[in-house]
Every structure is written in structure tokens, then in C-alpha cells.
Write a structure and sequence with these properties.
The chain is α+β, with helices and mostly antiparallel strands and about 260 residues long. The protein is about 30% helix and about 30% strand. The protein has helices at about 45-65, 100-105, 135-140, 145-165, 215-220, 225-235, 250-260, and strands at about 5-10, 15, 25-30, 30-35, 40, 70-75, 80, 85, 90-95, 110-120, 130, 170-185, 190-195, 200-205.
């Protein structure tokens, strides 16, 4: 079947025209970037793992009443989602000091924050996704006050759920990013969760050892990126204990099958 029209290509995903009006096919790539794409590389099988992990989390969030763009997973690397108008704000939810927060404020990484902190960044790679306030958002009309209330409420609810989800499998949720989109119905719209939730956009530390199980392994040249992503998927019950039995790269799998 011919590939449908490509709509957009980002750092980690490609979006294609969906089979029905109002739908998009979201394809997960193995490409890895850091520091606003100043560092680039590939994590073999990352797209497959992120597709499964994001599907799992979005499905669970939908079950507790969080509206999302997710419809269903189509195959190893693609999922069908609702077409939305992305709100140009990246929402960062922080439970523990790490990354840029530690650097900017001189707080030791790993310090538990007194309360959950929500930060907003203006989505613009050329500008480095600068940190902005709710006043900036209101002033420039990036989102209405009502939309920001909905976004903040959903962010806290998602954080509460995910903290429990990951704690149950021995992982500490340090921080994560969210994106939201407007789902239009005629002249009216509502804000729903969009994009993905995966180790690409979350900091996940093993509760017992403090080992990083996320993209920081790539950012900081720690190595073991694939193994870390696999470990998250395994603990979530998305991979069998024997990782060798799980297909992460379809081309490699086909070549192996043809030799057998």
C-alpha cells in the first residue's frame, strides 16, 4: 500500500495523513536528539519501544478520564491519533530537581522539590524553547486562560497517576514534558493531551540504585540507552523477560528470518 502524504517531520516522529478525516498517523523514529538538536544520534529500536510505552500510558490515562489524541496502535512504529491544533506551549512537570532546573538555580540534582513545579516553555527550536510565564502566554494569545486552567489541572492529574504507576515498578518519576492540542468541533474546541509520553520526554530513575532509565543516558554519553528503554518497557509488562525474543528492528528481523 502506498505511503500516505507526509504532513510533518520532527526530531522523533513523522506525521502522515490519516485514513479518515480528522486523523493522523504518528510514526516513531529511532533518531535521538539533545540540546535542541545540537547533539544527534540513533538509538536502535527506540521508536518501537516508545510507541508501545506511549500507547500503554495514554490508554491508562484515557481510562481515568484524561482526554487524549490517542486512538489505537497500528503496528510496531505507528499509531493512529486524532488531528489537533498543537498549543505552542511545552509543559514541564517537575517533582525532583534535575537537568536545567538544577543548573539554573544551583539546586543539587536529585533534591526532592517542596511541591510539584509546573513550567511552561514556548515551542520554538530556533529560540531554544525558552521558559515563559503565564503572563507571556496570555499576552501573546498562545492559549486562553480557560485553556491554561485545563492544561494545569490535567498536568497535575497526569503527574499524580504517573508517579503511582512508576513507583509501583520501582521507578522514581523525576520530571516529564507534556504537549496539548485543541480538538475542534465546528467553532468550539477543547484541549486534550497530545504528542507522546515515553523515556524520551521523562526522567526516570531506578528507586533502588538511582540509575537513569531515560534519554539522559544519550544526553550525557552514559551508554546503555537501548537497555534502559527496554527496562522501562519490561517493568511496565510490555516486553517478555527474554529481550532477545522481542522484535525491535523489523528489517533486521526479516533478514534473520530469511536466513533461518
Amino acid at each position: 500500500m502506498a505511503r500516505r502524504r507526509q504532513i510533518y517531520e520532527g526530531k522523533a516522529k513523522i506525521l502522515y495523513e490519516g485514513p479518515e478525516p480528522g486523523t493522523i498517523i504518528q510514526y516513531f523514529k529511532d533518531d535521538a536528539t539533545a540540546f535542541n538538536a545540537q547533539k544527534k544520534g540513533t538509538i536502535s529500536g527506540k521508536g518501537v519501544l516508545n510507541n508501545r510505552i506511549s500507547e500503554h500510558i495514554f490508554t491508562l490515562l484515557g481510562q481515568i478520564g484524561v482526554p487524549t489524541h490517542f486512538i489505537r496502535r497500528l503496528n510496531m512504529r505507528e499509531q493512529l491519533v486524532r488531528q489537533v491544533e498543537i498549543v505552542p506551549i511545552e509543559v514541564v512537570v517537575r517533582n525532583v530537581a534535575a537537568g536545567s532546573l538544577s543548573k539554573k538555580l544551583g539546586i543539587e540534582e536529585g533534591t526532592q522539590l517542596p511541591r510539584t513545579l509546573i513550567e511552561y516553555c514556548y515551542k520554538d527550536d530556533a529560540l531554544g524553547d525558552p521558559l515563559v510565564s503565564e503572563e507571556h502566554i496570555a499576552c501573546f494569545g498562545w492559549a486562553t486562560q480557560e485553556e491554561m486552567h485545563d492544561i494545569a489541572d490535567m498536568a497535575i492529574r497526569i503527574n499524580d497517576f504517573m508517579c503511582g504507576l512508576f513507583a509501583g515498578i520501582g521507578i522514581r518519576l523525576i520530571d516529564f514534558k507534556l504537549e496539548f492540542g485543541r480538538l475542534w468541533d465546528g467553532d468550539y474546541s477543547r484541549v486534550i493531551l497530545a504528542d507522546e509520553i515515553s523515556p524520551d520526554g521523562c526522567r526516570l530513575w531506578d528507586m533502588a540504585t538511582g540509575e537513569k532509565l531515560d534519554k539522559d543516558r544519550f544526553r550525557r554519553d552514559l551508554g546503555g540507552e537501548v537497555e534502559a528503554y527496554q527496562e522501562v518497557a519490561r517493568r511496565l509488562g510490555l516486553m517478555p523477560e527474554g529481550a532477545d525474543t522481542t522484535v525491535l528492528d523489523l528489517d533486521t528481523h526479516r533478514k534473520k528470518r530469511s536466513k533461518d
